[in-house]
Design goal:
Blueprint (H helix, E strand, L loop, with lengths): L2 E5 L20 E5 L7 H8 L4 E4 L8 H5 L6 E4 L9 H6 L3 E3 L6 H15 L2 H10 L15 E5 L3 H12 L3 E5 L5 H6 L3 E2 L3 H6 L3 E4 L13 H6 L5 E4 L8 H10 L4 E4 L19 E3 L8 H19 L9
Parallel strand pairs: 1-2, 1-3, 3-4, 4-5, 6-7, 6-9, 7-8, 9-10, 10-11, 11-12
Helix pairs in contact: 4-6
């Protein structure tokens, strides 16, 4: 009898066309779920017959409670090699193998700049006015050349963002708890004295940190108040890095000029969330990793993960 595999949260309906699933056709029945199921009972009903689940990033939390209701589950695959919404200890306790895939740092880097440029040049407002017959030129854009880009985090993505900022002629500074002057200099970046120094001295601030207990709420009211009223905050990393209530006040009360956001504490973002309506927010539906190349990588390696598991030699296991 074939095993059953469900691919969850295939919003665009491209999971099966992004990779060659034919190597599994004689051994595994694969189906996709287009809609995100927030109701736990509905999710269980949809996948309780499956031995294999493929999840996209952190769209669907897989905790001990869910695992207890999926007794047939043997293999869980996530895109990327890190997924904070999976309870790895609970998976181990239930004998569920968890595997990941590679993920490229280029797509989130590119989207970071899409948001930053969109904010700087008021692209949404000007495009909307042009489309709707509004005023011809109603805003004055912010220059990038000669301005300061502050990076909170200088890992793979942060370093790529830095290189592009330097190419624009920006002064690029960076800070993170463990960042050294030598590491910053390797990327042509100036090391800020501390977090407050970085925020107070930057025209654009972009976040590139892994979310953990140590970094949750890294940017709160004191940090946002330290920023310039003309400055913009961009977050394509994780929503939990910023205190949500403080960010709303900062945007409503003009502590900062605006924000470019691609990540949220609750996803999909509820229809009545105030971030959807604020005029100084450029918000996207978590598109940082959503590109043809990354999807081909995710789903192609998901097929490899299933093949390796069936052969008794799992690859890219998460621990």
């Amino acid at each position: 009898m074939k095993l059953r595999c469900a691919v969850l949260d295939d919003y665009q309906g491209v999971a099966l066309s992004s990779a060659d699933w034919s190597p599994l056709k004689d051994r595994v029945d694969v189906r996709v779920l287009r809609e995100h199921l927030t109701d736990r009972d509905a999710l269980v009903a949809a996948v309780e017959d499956c031995e294999i689940l493929v999840v996209m990033r952190e769209r669907t939390p897989v905790d001990a409670g869910l695992l207890a209701r999926l007794p047939r589950l043997r293999l869980l695959i996530t895109s990327g090699m890190r997924n904070a919404s999976i309870d790895l200890a609970a998976c181990r306790a239930r004998g569920v193998t968890v595997c990941g895939t590679a993920s490229s740092s280029e797509p989130p880097t590119e989207l970071t700049w899409a948001l930053l440029l969109g904010l700087a040049r008021h692209v949404p407002a000007e495009a909307r006015a042009l489309r709707e017959g509004g005023p011809w030129q109603s805003t004055v854009g912010a220059d990038l050349s000669g301005r300061t880009l502050g990076l909170v985090g200088l890992g793979k993505i942060g370093a790529r963002v830095a290189r592009i900022g330097l190419a624009f002629g920006m002064d690029v500074a960076a800070w993170s708890p463990n960042l050294t002057e030598e590491r910053a200099a390797e990327h042509g970046v100036r090391l800020a004295q501390d977090k407050r120094d970085l925020l107070a001295g930057s025209d654009f601030v972009s976040l590139h940190m892994v979310l953990s207990d140590r970094t949750r709420g890294l940017i709160g009211e004191p940090e946002l108040r330290a920023m310039r009223p003309s400055a913009y905050l961009v977050n394509t990393s994780r929503a939990g890095l910023v205190e949500g209530g403080a960010l709303l006040r900062a945007l409503r009360e003009g502590w900062i000029a605006g924000a470019g956001l691609d990540v949220y504490e609750v996803e999909p973002l509820p229809a009545d969330d105030p971030l959807r309506a604020l005029p100084n927010v450029l918000a996207l539906p978590h598109l940082g990793y959503v590109t043809e190349g990354n999807y081909a990588r995710y789903f192609g390696q998901a097929v490899e993960d299933v093949e390796a598991f069936l052969a008794g030699a799992p690859v890219r296991e998460l621990s």
